[in-house]
Amino acid sequence: MHRPATDAQIKAGFAIVKEAVDACDVALLSVAWPGKAEVDVRSLVRDDATELADFEALNLTKASSDGSVLRRDANLVRADLGLPPAES
């Protein structure tokens, strides 16, 4: 029988994800991005923080919609760098 995860289990798993996302964001912000990419990378990092806060608050519906915003942000950065959109 499958039992849903407890809030404590979700938060423990979240801590690992948050640490990885935070490290990625620090690395992204340490790069000298060309042109408009720098603005879009900063937007991506800011929206990462919003999604993490929603996950931490266990507001999973909002966190899910935040994911759409992050995909948009990532594709803006990709466009800035002359790359095609990421596949869904």
Describe the secondary structure blueprint for this structure:
Elements: H1 7-29, H2 37-56, H3 60-80
Helix pairs in contact: 1-2, 2-3
Description:
This protein is mainly α and 88 residues long. It has a domain at 35-82. 73% of the residues lie in helices and 0% in strands. The chain has 3 helices and no strands. Helix 2 runs antiparallel to helix 3 (60-80). It starts with 6 loop residues before the first helix and ends in an 8-residue tail after the last helix. The model has no long low-confidence stretch (mean pLDDT 91).
For the largest beta-sheet, the strand count, sense and barrel status come to: none
Measure the end-to-end span.
32 Å
% residues in beta strands: under 5%
Residue windows where pLDDT falls under 50 for at least 5 positions: none
Helix content: over 70%
Short description:
With 88 residues, the chain is mostly helical. The chain contains three helices and no strands. It starts with 6 loop residues before the first helix and ends in an 8-residue tail after the last helix.
Annotation keywords:
elongated; mainly alpha; 73% helix
